[in-house]
Amino acid sequence: MKKIxxxxxxxxxxxxxxxxxxxxxxxxxxxxxxxxxxTQKEVLDKNxxxxxxxxxxxxxxxxxxxxxVVTAANISSQSNDNFEQIKNxxxxxxxxxxxxxxxxxxNSEARMLFAKPxxxxxxxxxxxxxxxxxxxMKNGKPFVSRLLISSVLGKPHFIIAAxxxxxxxxxxxxxxxxxxxxxxxSIVEEIQRRFNGRIWVTDRDGVIAVHPDKKLILKLMPSPxxxxxxxxxxxxxxxxxxxxxxxxxxxxxxxxxVYAAISFVPKVNWMVMVEQYEKxxxxxxxxxxxxxxxxxxxxxxxAIISGVFLAxxxxxxxxxxxxxxxxxxxxxxxxxxIPVNSKDEIGELSKAFNDMSIRLKSxxxxxxxxYIKVNNIQQxxxxxxxxxxxxxxxxxxxxxxxxxNKEAEKITGYKSxxxxxxxxxxFCEVTKLDINLTDNLxxxxxxxxTKLITKNNDxxxxxxxxxxxxxxxxEILGTIILFKDLSRIKMLEEELKREDRxxxxxxxxxxxxxxxxxxxxxxxxLLQVLKESWQDxxxxxxxxxILQEEVGNLNKMVINFLNFSKxxxxxxxxxxxxxxxxxxxxxxxxxxxxxxxxxxxxxxxSIPIVYVDRRTIKQCFLNILINAIQAVGRSGRIVIExxxxxxSCNNNSKKLARIKISDNGxxxxxxxxxxxxxxxxxxxxxxxxxxxxxxxxxxxxxxxxIAVKSxxxxxxxFEVLLPAVPCGVSEAGEKT
Length: 736
What we know:
By secondary structure, this protein is α+β, with helices and mostly antiparallel strands. The chain is 47% helix and 23% strand. Strand 17 and strand 18 form a beta hairpin.
């Protein structure tokens, strides 16, 4: 055991001091936060109160001024169009009330007829562009204008306008009174002198009316474009003015944070903003911070002294126990009991150590035995995996390969080290598996036939099975992938197919020899008759015609036999089965019309494009349709039905097109159903018995299936299943 470098005599005081500092700092920080929040709330609430008070004072000022203008307008409305009386009234108001820097009368044509003070250059001017003129003329109510530069005085102010009515109650003009922005500024300045922040006012359009910077007022500057955090949202200041959003918020001015309280003047919707920098808001917390630092220093000194005394009282008994524990470093078997000399916690610790040492010896022995058993089982399982006749790949739940046995190395040509501890996707990419194993790694999949590319670049067929490894809690720990090389099996299957073909050809040869024998015997008899009656022209002609017909039948039989026996060279391509059936119906159209056969087509528009050899499949459906036409009588019925079909194969879904051709002919007897696809079986006079046999062969070679159902007296139904275009081939026939 290593000697202890840092004694508890140092650690305990150190941790006590650290904990004390943390406790004091956290307590102090919380106190500071609470004090800061309370101070902040008090200051900001006070600022909001100031803003609301200024808004109320401005509103009261505007209300008084508006009332004065409205009174003058009412008196003027009673003057019966006596403009001299109106002039005297408004001039009287100008002389007696200090609100206004300008007062005027404007008629309904937006002309200023007279004003005080007077300015001759505006006599011929019309004021259709003024908002107060348009509002008063439209609504007939008093109106407070936006901020503007006076055309009479040439300085910024705003207008309070009230309508003057004629005796019929129509608006004949208005009285407007200009109020200089200094009047509003004087309301704010009284409070501004006692406030260490900024107070400014804008009109309802955001144009600055009052501001500490007088230049902004003289130029009627718009409010600055700042993003204000107000409540739970962040808005531009112009949007706050537009939405009349009152409350307390803040924004950034360079590196400084500015807190602002916003309120609006009732009715006119002017904004009053009271601002303070963050450092001014939190000035009261600085003293609290200084006091907190002094307290922390005192508490730390007390904690160090207390920690040293506490450490000594704890570490002295423990030190004696450590000396005894160091004596057991030689090993578990050399552990000796520690004498218990006290009844306090140290004595309890010694007694607990003795009990632990006894149990530890027992646990170590059990662990050693368990390790030996697990190691033997692991070795046994490894031998089984390495000796297995199938390739085995084991992956964990992260899809990394953990086992790659010898048979897997033999099949793929790769070493275990090439893929161990790599993702299964790498194995799939390198070997170019046709099946996407990564999507099905945690599913049970049995005997999926596919291909892979070996290290020697050979393509071999394999059979793959997947089995997830699941623990008692139902959790998937990984997956076992088993695969077998099918190359030899495929070779044996091909040999069996060749042998089966040779046997079938032998049987067919015997059948065709039998079939040829009767016509040849008849031909021999006819030649004998011809030899005896060669001078009789009539007899000779009849015999020659019969000979020509028999030779033709023999030729047809031989050609059909050759067509059936030779392998078809298929050229599969995406084929629209509906268009193909339409072409075949056009070929037999004359026979259908001649027998007045009704052909019904039931086509599912979702039927897939099939991947077949167009020429051979066309021959198959032509044979089936010709048989159906021959089977029905006059005015018979043939139904062609095309549907989408999905078949399940090895837990995979396979898309197919299902085509049914049924008729209401005489039907096929049960004893003949199993023979109709056999070569040379026919019930027709003059038939070869190879048509349906060739059809069966061609459908199978195209990867399809064919079946027949029939009932005597009711009719026959042929069902053909053809494969849809595979995923790797586009409908244009190109590989993707």
